Amino acid sequence: MFPDTSDGEIASECEYDSVFNHLEELRLHLEQEMGFEKFFEVYEKVKAIHEDEDENIEICSTIVQNILGSEHQHLYAKILHLVMADGAYQEGKISSDAFVF
C-alpha cells in the first residue's frame, strides 16, 4: 500500500521512485567510499543479522565492525540504515504491487 501524504492523499508511484533513487544514491556513495566487495560483504552480513532473530546481535555487530576496520567503522550506521530502508521499501513495494493487475 502507498503511504498517506501530509494532505491525506495516497502517495504516488513517483514518491516510491524517489525513495528508491535516494537508496541507490546512498548505496553508490558507500560502494565508492569502501569499494564494492567490502560494501557487499558488510551489507549482506548486516542483512543476515536482521533477518535471523536467533543471531546474537552483539557478536555479529563486532564481526561487522572488524570487517569494516577502523577506516570505515564510521559508515556502519549508514549501512544499517540502508539495510533497514531497503527492507522496508521492498516490503512496501511488494504489498502495493500485489494489488496491481
Describe this structure in words.
- With 101 residues, this protein is mainly α.
- It has one domain (13-97).
- It has helices at residues 13-34, 36-51, 57-72, 76-97.
- It is flat.
- The model is unreliable at 1-9 and 94-101 (pLDDT under 50).
Task: Give the arrangement of secondary structure elements.
Blueprint (H helix, E strand, L loop, with lengths): L12 H22 L1 H16 L5 H16 L3 H22 L4
Helix pairs in contact: 1-2, 1-4, 2-3, 2-4
Enzyme class: transferase
InterPro entries: NEK_Ser/Thr_kinase_NIMA
Keywords: ATP-binding, Kinase, Nucleotide-binding, Serine/threonine-protein kinase, Transferase
Strand content of the residues, in percent?
under 5%
Largest sheet: none
Q: Tell how many strands the DSSP assignment holds.
A: 0
Query: What are the segments in which pLDDT stays under 50 over at least 5 consecutive residues?
Result: 1-9, 94-101
Tally of domains: 1
Task: Based on the model shown, name its key terms.
disordered N terminus, 101 residues, flat, mainly alpha, disordered C terminus
Short description:
This protein is an all-alpha fold and 101 residues long. It is 75% helix and 0% strand.
